[in-house]
Write a structure and sequence with these properties.
Blueprint (H helix, E strand, L loop, with lengths): L9 H4 L11 H15 L4 H9 L24 H7 L2 H17 L9 H20 L9 E12 L14 E12 L16 H12 L8 H4 L5 E3 L6 H13 L32 E7 L7 H12 E14 L10 H5 L13 E11 L9 E12 L1
Parallel strand pairs: 3-4, 4-5
Antiparallel strand pairs: 1-2, 5-7, 6-7
Length: 378
């Protein structure tokens, strides 16, 4: 059995937040490993297994979604005292919050996969603090961040294809849920904001006319439905951009009505508020299984108006547990199969555009994004 790792106090081992870019990737990962071992110890039986049993088994790489486990130190008296120290815990909590706020812009990581491992580990430790407060503590810990986008109003003037500088700042506050004491599954896709949602939001703010998000195309009271909204980035951003574009004017109000409702794509219940068909459907990164594209296609066919459009931003993953899932999109929306509307048309891919993954956006297994324009075709 390897000797127990001596854990260090956060106040004396963590680098200053302002100096993170001056540190090496191994140093930061080691610092996070120290915090993880200190505040997220494995149960004794599991710690024993990982340190002394099955050492002959090969190491299996994950997809970058779940944080890796360290070999944790024994809970000796010194470790327990350090773990229970309120000052050290408060120091670690403030540091982790600062780290998560800057993680996406740090230049010290050699790959996006290692950056995401660091984010996952920091999130896991921070979540454990909230889970330890009391038995009545909520299971899901939340982190709230503000994201800012520039709405290019010039793009909707003239022919609607300009790239002027008449910008308006759109701010969206998101709350991402992190795994708490009873849930360590970082692949829980509904709790997180994904890269495709940011790419799509940036696109519709930079050039709304490119997606036909103009008053001429939408009218004064468009009905837009986001499928698989998750933390709500796209829907909230839409609620921010439509009034400046002049597309929301109902009963003298300039504020759009935003309503959230559950929807099972396999057996959709289209009772109110989902009883009226949509002018526009939007979805970003919502396909995680081979059957999802088929469910989505048939659900969308019931919800989209005959002259409506469905914008779908797909994430392409070439490694990990979701490898190849993106290929089910083209097979499902092939223009032949699926439900037909009263006019005899079926949903099909009309156009497709590819986007590279920018630095600091998305996870390690995301290779690119594809934007599909889907509509009714004969």
């Amino acid at each position: 059995m390897s000797p127990a790792r001596r854990l260090l106090p956060p106040s004396s081992s963590l680098p200053a937040i302002r100096s993170l870019n001056d540190q090496s990737e191994p140093f930061i990962l080691d610092a996070l490993g120290n915090l993880h071992a200190l505040y997220c110890p494995l149960p004794t039986s599991l710690a024993f297994q990982t340190s002394s049993v099955h050492k002959e088994l090969p190491v299996v790489a994950d997809s970058g979604y779940a944080s890796d486990n360290d070999e944790d130190s024994r809970d000796d008296e010194e470790t327990l005292e350090l773990r229970d120290d309120p000052y050290e815990r408060s120091f670690a909590e403030r540091w982790l919050t600062g780290f998560l706020g800057r993680a996406e812009e740090l230049m010290c990581f050699e790959s996006e996969e290692s950056r995401q491992r660091a984010i996952d580990k920091a999130s896991c430790v921070l979540a454990s603090f909230f889970g330890q407060d009391s038995e009545e503590a909520v299971e899901d810990t939340e982190i709230t961040r503000d994201y800012h986008f520039t709405l290019n109003l010039d793009s909707c003037e003239g022919e609607g294809r300009g790239h002027g500088t008449n910008g308006k700042t759109i701010t969206v506050r998101l709350t991402d849920g992190l795994a708490g004491k009873d849930n360590t599954d970082h692949t829980d896709v509904g709790l997180q904001s994904w890269g495709a949602a940011f790419i799509f939001t940036e696109l519709m703010c930079a050039n709304p006319a490119r997606l036909d998000f103009t008053k001429i195309a939408l009218g004064s009271t468009p009905r837009i439905i986001e499928l698989g909204a998750g933390t709500g980035l796209v829907g909230i951003a839409l609620g921010r951009i439509l009034p400046p574009l002049g597309s929301i004017q109902e009963n003298g109000s300039t504020l759009p009505s935003i309503v959230a409702a559950p929807l099972d794509w396999q057996t959709p219940d289209l009772s109110p508020p989902l009883h009226n068909q949509a002018d526009v459907l939007v979805a970003t990164d919502v396909i995680y299984g081979p059957e999802h594209a088929l469910w989505l296609r048939d659900c969308a066919a019931r919800m989209l108006k005959p002259d409506g459009v469905f914008w779908l931003m797909l994430t392409v993953r070439t490694t990990g547990k979701f490898e190849g899932i993106s290929e089910t999109m083209r097979a499902s929306f092939n223009g032949r199969d699926g439900l037909r509307n009263p006019q005899g048309y079926v949903l099909a891919i009309i156009d497709e555009e590819r986007f590279a993954r920018p630095r600091g956006i998305g996870r390690g297994d995301e290779s690119e994004y594809r934007l599909f324009r889907i509509g009714w075709a004969s």
